[in-house]
Fold this protein.
Amino acid sequence: MHSRLAGIDPLNEPSTFSPLHPAMKIALYLTPLSPHHLRLAAQIGTEEIVAPYPGPNPRDLLRLCDEIDSYGMRLSVIERHIPHDLLVHRRPGWERQLQAIVDLVQAMGEARVPVLCYNWMPDDDWQRTSVDSRERGGALVTEFDLSQVEDPPAPPDATPAAALWENLEAFLRQIIPVAEQSGVSLALHPDDPPLDRLRGQDRIITSIAACERAVQLVPSPANGICYCQGTFASAGENVVEGISRLGPHIRFGHFRDVVGTAARFRETFQDNGQTDMPAAIRAWREIRFDGPLRPDHVPTLDGETNEHPGYEMLGRLWAVGYLRGLLDATASTHSPA
């Protein structure tokens, strides 16, 4: 039997649970998801792993769960590379992509993977204009500068904002009942960069208000939000207040920061951006968030190849230590009831 279903023997598995922060779970997205990186993640106290779309074969998800379980952690979130571009624009073939997501959610339910992080970005994923800007000590970070992006007229096949909202509602009406039955929560990631228009194409999930609208399209505990601090910071939102505002709907968190605005910003170390990160952690505690929170888009440090900009390993190790320190420092004033 698959170990996720059978359970892990607590006498034979080392615990990564810390009594100082029993609610939030420190999570990591590993690039690549290799034995070496899994060992490092376990050694620094990571509790949960975030992995990309494993493909259409449910056995691949089960095998991935087994591998992660063997390191004393668990797979809790599927995020990135989920086929959805045809759904976003409602183009021919969207039914096939919808079925793939239905199959994924059902497989996640069987494997007890509780969160599916998705986005509604018309261009599929986050956008940057540079991957080698400089941060503290010369560390490499990604940057976005709208002045370097051509702004053409809307292409003939562009999808207007109103249609993007209609398509999102149609998708949610079809997938949320499946998620409810499977015990899986969807977590909508905001558009990154949070611009209402990019390269002639409208974009809609660019603010906290847009996220509030999205969860009201199909009200359900399974219709949730991935609260990305860095995206909301670049959008000019009050990141700390936003955690409280969206609190009941947050199913997953990205702990990152930037300097700048949506039109021009660069990533930073988590302690070197424009957000009051201790205040943010206090806000996470005040809403009693009990899901996975992961450091995201870390700098590439000396000696790393920058093959995976924002996703190299050394910065993640540093970020987990910083996050754990903030969690421990705030534990005494926000102990669970």
About this structure: The longest helix spans residues 161-182. The chain has a mean pLDDT of 92. The two ends are 37 Å apart (CA to CA).
